[in-house]
Amino acid sequence: MATPLEKWVEEQAKLCQPDKVYWCDGSEEEARRLIEIGMKKEKIGDNPIFQELNQNLWPNAYLHRSHPTDVARTEHLTFVCHPDKDTAGPNNNWMHPDEAKEKMRKLSNGCMKGRTMYVLPYMMGHPDSPYSKACIQLTDVSYVAVSMRIMTRMTKKVIEKIGNRDDFVKGLHSVGDFDPNKRFIMHFPDEHFVWSIGSGYGGNALLGKKCFSLRIASYLGLQEGWLAEHMVILGIEDPEGNITYITAAMPSACGKTNLAMLQSTLPGYKVWTLGDDIAWLNIGPDGRLWAINPETGLFGVAPGTSLKTNPNMLITLKGKKFYPTLFTNTALNVDTNEPWWEGLDTNIPKNLLDWQGKPWQPPAETKAAHPNSRFTVSIYNSPTLSKEFDNPKGVPISAIILGGRRTQLIPLVVEAFDWEHGVFSGARTGSETTAAAIHKEGVLRRDPMAMLPFCGYNMGDYFRHWLNIGKRLKHPPKIYTVNWFRSDDEGKFIWPGFGENIRVLKWIVERTQNKVGARETPLGNIPHLKDLNLDGLDIPEAKLNKLFEINPNQWQNELADIKKFFEQFGQHLPEELWQHYYNLEKALQRG
Ligand code: SAT
Ligand code: MN
Question: What predicted TM-score, i.e. pTM, was given to this entire model?
Answer without folding.
Answer: 0.97
